């Protein structure tokens, strides 16, 4: 099984390219993901993980994700290699995003607020109710 779940901050705005063969959109960006533990007396370390998102998901990421924003990514690890013009062999390991989520709180940035304004706030559409005392509970 090849499944990756990451939560981190974008180190730069997503970069958009299109494939030469069929003009498919691909967005690439890097996430700074904090390690769980820090050595005593040292700052917490972070890993910088390359992520690519294709087609509609890539379009979503390029439109709504910005540098410094905290996001969640679910995907798979992929390795690939190629030879450049000088004959040098290159290897890269990256996460191919299958799902992408906002992970900042609503008040942390304007990007999530813009997304809610564009697509509507799902939370405001759910029914709300109030319980005045514990005697009103049915259990």
Describe the 3D structure.
- 17% of the residues lie in helices and 42% in strands.
- It has a single domain (4-37, 44-123), classed as Beta Barrel (OB fold (Dihydrolipoamide Acetyltransferase, E2P)).
- The chain has a five-stranded mixed beta barrel.
- It has helices at residues 55-64, 110-119, 122-125; strands at residues 4-10, 15-18, 25-34, 46-54, 70-83, 89-102.
Q: What's the average pLDDT?
A: 82
| Count of alpha/pi helices | 3
Report the helical percentage.
10-25%
Shape: globular
Number of domains: 1
Name the features.
139 residues, alpha+beta, OB fold (Dihydrolipoamide Acetyltransferase, E2P), 3 helices, 6 strands, 17% helix, globular, disordered C terminus
Describe the protein's topology.
Layout: E1 4-10, E2 15-18, E3 25-34, E4 46-54, H1 55-64, E5 70-83, E6 89-102, H2 110-119, H3 122-125
Parallel strand pairs: 4-6
Antiparallel strand pairs: 1-3, 1-5, 2-3, 3-4, 5-6
Offer a quick outline of the entry.
The protein is 17% helix and 42% strand.
């Amino acid at each position: 099984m090849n499944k990756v779940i990451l939560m981190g901050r974008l180190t730069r705005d997503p970069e958009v390219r299109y494939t030469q063969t069929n003009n498919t959109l691909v967005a690439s960006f890097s996430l700074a993901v904090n390690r769980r533990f820090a050595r005593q007396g040292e700052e917490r370390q972070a890993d910088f993980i390359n992520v690519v998102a294709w087609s509609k998901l890539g379009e979503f990421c390029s439109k709504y994700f910005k540098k410094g924003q905290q996001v969640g990514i679910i995907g798979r690890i992929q390795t690939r290699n190629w030879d450049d013009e000088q004959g040098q062999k290159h290897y890269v390991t990256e996460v191919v995003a299958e799902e992408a989520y906002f992970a900042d709180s609503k008040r942390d940035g304007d990007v999530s607020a813009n997304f809610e304004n564009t697509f509507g706030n799902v939370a405001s559409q759910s029914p709300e109710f109030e319980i005045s005392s514990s005697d009103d509970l049915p259990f």
